[in-house]
Structures are given as C-alpha cells and as structure tokens.
Amino acid sequence: MQHIEREWQFVREPDKVSLLLREKVRNAKFYLKGTEPAAEVYRGADLTGTNFEFQYSPDIHIEDQITLYATLNRQLEIDFQVLQKPDEGRLVARPLVARISKYSREVRRILITNNEVSAGHFQASKSELALDNTRPQVANKVIYTEFERQLAKSIPGLQIFDFANRERPEETHLLDRSTESIFVADLSQLEQYKSHGEGFADFEELLEEEEILSRKRKEYLDRQYGSLVIVPILYEMANGSRKPVAFFFVLTDKGQHLDMQAVQQLQTASSQIVDRILDANMITVDDRQRIIDISPKGLLVELTQPELIKYVPNSRVLTFDLIFKMQAPLRFRGIVRHTRKTENALLVGMSIEGTGHLDGGRKSNALARLENLVQMLKTS
Hints:
The protein is an alpha+beta fold and 380 residues long. The chain is built from seven helices and 19 strands. α2 packs antiparallel against α5 (260-280). The longest helix has 21 residues, at 260-280. It starts with 7 loop residues before the first strand and ends with a helix.
C-alpha cells in the first residue's frame, strides 16, 4: 500500500525548539498525538532551561516519549522526553525535535472535537493501474477498443497497446519510464527524429542509447514508412507523479504523414481514456467517517472503512459529502495531498478543489456555504 507522507522541515537542536516554544508558538493549542478524540494538553508554568510543564486530563496514558502537535498555518509536531510527573495530570518534559510542514496552509484549520462535521458517500476508483501496470487489465480492453475505433477515423492505423502487452511494438519500450511522446513526421529525414520541445522525447537519442538506431532506420527506409507517433496514456498517482499504463502507436505508410494536430488529439484522448477507466472502476461507500480538522480549503479525515483504507492511498481524487450538524450535505471534490496509516485507520489530508456537481452555480454556492459553516465553527 502506498502512503504519501507530509513533507517536513526539522529543528533538531533542543535549545532552538525551546526558543520556538517560548517565542513563536507560545499561545498555540497543543494536542497529544495518537489520542482519539484529540486530547488537548495545556502549557503550565515556565521553567528554566529547555524544560516545559504541561497539564493534561488524568485519564490519559502518558508514555516516556510523547508527541504534541498544533494546527497552525503550517502543521507543527514536537517530540518530547517526559522527565517527571510531579502530580496527577501534570508533567515536565524536554523537547527533542520539531517538525514543521514545508508548505503553508492558505487558511487555518479548525479542530473538530465533538463530531460537528463528518464525511460520507465517498466515491473512489478501485482501479489497480496504480498498483501494478505490468499486469494485464482485461476490463480496460473494451475501453481501448472503443477509442481505437473512434480515433482511427481521423488517424488511420492507430493502435492502443496495454503496458502489460508482451507483443507491443519495440519503440514503445523506449517510453516505459517516461511521460513524453515520440513524434517523427517523416521517418526518412533523420533531423526530424529530434525532440519537438517540452513533452517530447529525442527519438534519435533513445535509439542510440539502445544501440538500435541503424537497424530501425534501415527498417523504416526499406519498408518506406511515413510517420511515427507514440503517445503514452498516463495514469496520475496519488502523489502527483504519472506513469504510462498503455500507449497510442501509429506507424503510417509511405506518403501518409501526420502532423502535430494528430499528436495533440491523442494527448487529449489519453486523459479521456484514464477518466473512463476510473469511472468504470468506481466504488461508493456511504459509511460516515470522522473529520479531524477542516478549513474552507481543505480537511483531514480519518478513514476506518476497509475499502477506503485499501483504495484511497492509490487515488488522486475523491468525491464525498461533508455533513455539518443540522445542515443538508454538501458534495465536494478533493485532491489527496498526504496519507498516514495508523493502527486501525488511514489519515488523509485533502485540499478541496471544487464540488462533485457539474453546475457552476451550485459549485460557487457550495464553496461559499462551506466557508460560512467553517466560520460558524470558528466562532462557536
């Protein structure tokens, strides 16, 4: 299972962490990591040196080392060594290391402590392309065949080869680890093997690296081929990276030359195919899941439903309902930014990129409504 970890900046010197606590985040609300629901830990009296006093609910179990976190413009976590517990509900600890998220949040999030907000009616793709693109995806063959038939009307000879197809053309293997396309308008002209700019591979260079340039050149000339186009069909991973799951492949006969418009048409169709694959593998989970914190721009949700735990780490996009107490559900589209596995759950940080509705008016109304509801939480 793939997990996307938050990117951190570290402060490893205890004296610098102490300075951070005393001067920069003195009034921050800290919570004990690993407690459900999140247990607030209160700053006690100032102590000398690098030691700090904290107060907490006596029914919370405190380990020898603890992590406190604060939800600020950037997420902050500090590991402490517990030195003593002079009284019930009071401890003295020394900071060890601080972690600060590299990326600032546009809006400060509100911690949800009494289930005022939950999420439900999730939709996610269970496509296994993200897990293994070397295993044949039989169900996708129908989609590939449909697009082959449609696109061949304007691009004769077009074929789509699954990444796992052992019989796919030799040239496609040159792009196994690439997101670029190959385009040669006239295979008889070596100068046209060069890259056409961003997003295009240098075909001559790739052939030379594999020591097959002379052989392929001879083949193209002997058989009098016209143009070559290879466009990878790219699946976007949860971490934002892309990998090929199939390839458009066109090798035209002599006198039949393709132009850049054909390449652009295939690049557009690539995104459409992936959308179709995701839609065909969509699951819906109605179970409500707990929201840990929220802002008008994003949220942190705790997933405990088994199918969501299984498929969300390999998903880039989720749609879901946000349910505020005494309010009608609002449907949103979220982009997964980071995940973290706990013993019984998956914590998922998402940015809210829009709504699950196509109607533009409903979209703007839902986002404005969300902002108002979050503001109400902030002032309650």
